[in-house]
Amino acid sequence: MSSHRGSSTPQGGPSRPAHGGNVDPFALSFDGSDGVPTQARHDTRDRLSGTPSHSTQSSPYHPAPNRPQGRPAHGGSIDPFALSFDGSDGVPTQARRDTQSGVSMHSTQSSPSTPSQSANQTNGVQAGARVSPSWCATTSTSYRMSDHISREQQEASTYPPQPPPSTPARSVNTISRVPVGGKTNSQPKVHASVSVAEVRSPAPTYTGYYEPVSKSQSYDMLDVDLEVAQEKDNAHDSFVSKAPLRGYLGNFFTKTSKYRAIQSPHSVQEAGWPSNSESTFRHQDSLGRLYKGPSDDRFLNPVDGSVKELVVQCTDVLYWGPKNTTYKRTFIRNVSPITLQLANWPTSHLNDGPKSKSADRKAKLFLAVKWPVTCYALNHLIGIPGLTSTGTVLNHGNYDPFPYRYWGYCKVTRNTVEEGTTPSGASPQDINIPAARSNRILEPITLCIIKEDEPYGRPTLVSGWKNDIENQHHHGKCPEYLFIAYTAEQFKHSNAHDVAALHSLATRATRDAGLTAYWVGLSCMQPDNVEDDVFRISDIVRGAHSMAVIIGPGTRDAQGQPSVKSMLREWGERLWTLPEALLIASNKPISVYRRGYQGPLLIPKNQFAGMAWADSVTARDLIDHYEGNLTLSRLELVTIAMQALFARKRGEYLPGDHSYALMGLLRSRPKIDSTDTSFQAFARLSLANDSDMLIERLMCLLPQSPTQHWSSVSDAYGVNVWDIYPTCQIAGVCSNDTVLVDGAFGATIHWDKFRKVANTRRVRSWKRLAVQTMLHGAPYFFLIGMLFFQSAWNTVSVLRGVIRIIDEINNIWDTIVKYTPFTTAEAAPHHLDSGPAARRLLHWALLLGSVGFILVGTACVVFVSSPYLTRLLYGGKFWGTQAWLFGFEGYLDIETIESQIFGSKMRRLRWSLYGSSLSRHRKNEFEESVGVDPTTDPVVRQKVDDAIMNTRPDAMRIFTLVDTNTMTVTMFEAVKPPVAVLLCGAEGGMQRAVACSYEWSTGICYRETVLRMETPVLEKMSRVSRFRFGMSRGS
């Protein structure tokens, strides 16, 4: 029946049926001969020609390529759903020619040199050519000029580093509808030991048929020899560096910063692309508080549930770069304990790697100067409460919740008692009755009845035909009829000759089949009930005796005589041809009648797919299912049929035509709503039928391209849609292509700054306990030791004075004895003896002095080694940590990230193995999987560089997520920073975490990316109330 959907459309609007009145839904066409909408054609040509389709201004860092505009790579009309490549390397012809022309152009513009030098320069350009990321639908090439720039010139550049002058802008792909599973004709995974251009995998060839993805064909999470690739790519410049962050001293006092005394963070940069809308929007949070204001980027504050402005911390190169965001930025702050920051300061200028002798002497000099200053500061600050704190436990150690609440109604709900327009006085049983009906018809309303004396069939009501006295012998049965399928591109409704030829061939086909009636949409659809009749055609096909396809030369074949196969392919491009061929009876062949030919062409149904459709593999799977030769599950049937239908053209009758065509293959059919968008129509159909939670599965997919259509089941992780097991449920369909989701777990991502992370250790370390005692007790040791030492000194001094006094007394007595006569010796006075008492006092003094000396010495040793002991105190592994999700924009090496949160580099954090499409991993010598820095892959490093250089607010950016529960770091791509992660499904032993941004003016959570998190995070997350979810902001 798509046959009727393809008539040409006049400029004034859609064409109307021959009988006049309402618009014929089958008589609509596109403005081009290839059936591709104008915008899709222009976007596809821009993509193939290398011109960015979403950028109107050229950047000095992104010169526009010198390419002919509007010329497709393969030389013919563009089919955006079936791009093919003429080479074994997967590069389109035009892209290859442009690369070659770019190389020659580059060589001619260079300075004069010898032929060998020119050849070397050309080879250098080829080696530097980079292929676009694997999710792109086409392959773009770029080449660097940095090979011809001296190292001195590169080092003389100012901060922040400027991009290479010939780095092209990344083109934004148009909508790419690819088969089930994501890829076809993909190259197997190869262990690469090559440079940038060789590490990139060739772009996949997108055809229109279904092919499941094997697990070995994933190209987003490569297991390659990254070390060799990195060594071979060292010749290329990159903005990825491991320079230390500037922190407060280098970033707080800048010209572009705005200072706030009350709000935190206190220093921010305003958005470079603020909203121009002057409208005021209203938001009601989970506690019922209202906020009104202009449109800007905000998030739900987990502390009090209110909506707050979004401030994103970023790396220094982004903070000092152009302001190209719609949200505010701030610099990254070190939140580790002050004492630990002081302990690391003396060695902060030291770095690994070889150094010259002068640099080594200078580093030692700095260390000698900074060490005593640090020791002095540490011993004065280490005893102050709060400075040594590592954080407090919040939420019982769980993540901060996502305080969302939806206050509105749904357009369509799963349970109709929640409808906002429930009739007054109606019971739930009455409301549910229409939902249970299938809206099927048992026989057609009108048929074209052929009489012996008439050349054509005459439209007749079936009810009137039954009541005719001549037909009483049929006992009220509907006459058997032939279903006529055609396309309005070959038989125009406005052309009387085409209409007559159509009815003539239909009459002949009916008589050849031995029947007296046929059904053709041109004459048998009621003018006043076209909308319902269009979407009940599937029931008419099911009740038909057989089907005849009537074809003829179309508008695109005006200059030549087309072949039967080309005319069938033109007929098969229409949307409704697929359900017609699937639902017709399989016991009779399909007869094809050609305009200008006498006899019909009989094609068995199981061979019809190869003749009529380009995606014959997908169509053959569906035909085999309906013939009983191959049984598909419900999910496979809906998924494959949806991909096949969305790959076909539709008329301009209703936006949800693809879903309405799919509705004919299912039992339950909701009532058609002309206001539904394509997504709403499919969501409504999915709610009415058991589709194995297909929409929930589509939510958990990570698109291979930012512009991938919502109906595509291609996943950047390379899994099939049935590999995902949803853990949430769609509760209703809302406006703006959104659904209401319930049952998901979620957590808030903190973007403004890091927090101190509380931690616990299972076993107390005696060494760490001793260090803690010495560090905190050193001042007291020193004080007590000095008191002891002073007491001993004073005791010795007193003892010396007493002994001197006793000696003087003894001298006086000796004089008295000498000059005073005594009669007897016993009468003479005796000397005072201070020996025993003096010795006892001296022993005590020596003991006090020794203890004081030991205490003072210990305090001095602790004083001198306090930086080392402080680092030792905060060292060790964590048994448990407070669960936080921290985010920042840009890339930092994991040592720097750990230093900003925990104060030192102790290998507590690790790169995520499979957390995002940018995650990379390798196998070590013990056959263990180890996560590696994603930027060791030149492909990812180029994406980081591109994100730094982009100037558009809608371009892809690089963000990094730190999970302190699993102690992992994940780098990912997104347009806006997601403010929450929502766990909506499971796949491959990990959770699918849908990272969403929040549009507070409408209360919609938009999918920015999909991450894979470890299953234990569920224990630290809380349930999220029903939330409104959108696949993308452009869906």
Quick summary of this structure?
The protein is an alpha+beta fold and 1035 residues long. Residues 107-118 have a biased composition (Low complexity).
Please explain how this structure is put together.
The protein has 1035 residues and is of the alpha+beta class. Among the domains are: 46-78 and 83-206, no CATH class; 782-870. It has 29 helices and 35 strands. Strands 11, 19, 20, 21, 22, 31, 32, 33, 34 and 35 form a 10-stranded mixed β-sheet that branches. Strand 29 (957-963) and strand 30 form a beta hairpin. Helix 9 packs across helix 27. It starts with 37 loop residues before the first helix and ends in a 5-residue tail after the last strand. Keywords: Membrane, Transmembrane, Transmembrane helix. Residues 1-12, 50-60, 135-144 have a biased composition (Polar residues). Residues 145-154 have a biased composition (Basic and acidic residues). The chain crosses the membrane at residues 769-789, 841-864. Residues 107-118 have a biased composition (Low complexity).
List the helices and strands and how they pair.
Layout: H1 38-49, H2 93-109, H3 115-128, E1 130-131, E2 141-142, H4 151-155, H5 196-199, H6 226-232, H7 247-251, E3 257-259, E4 267-269, E5 281-284, E6 290-293, E7 298-300, E8 307-309, E9 311-314, H8 316-319, E10 328-331, H9 338-344, H10 357-381, E11 412-413, H11 428-436, E12 446-449, E13 458-461, H12 462-467, E14 482-485, H13 496-512, E15 517-519, H14 521-524, H15 530-534, H16 537-543, E16 546-551, H17 564-572, H18 577-583, E17 590-594, E18 601-603, H19 605-612, H20 616-627, H21 634-646, H22 657-663, H23 678-688, H24 694-699, E19 725-726, E20 729-734, E21 738-742, E22 745-748, E23 759-760, H25 766-819, H26 835-864, H27 866-873, E24 880-881, E25 885-889, H28 894-902, E26 910-911, E27 920-923, E28 929-932, H29 938-949, E29 957-963, E30 968-974, E31 980-987, E32 990-999, E33 1004-1014, E34 1022-1023, E35 1027-1030
Biased composition (Polar residues): 1-12, 50-60, 135-144
Keywords: Membrane, Transmembrane, Transmembrane helix
Region (Disordered): 1-196
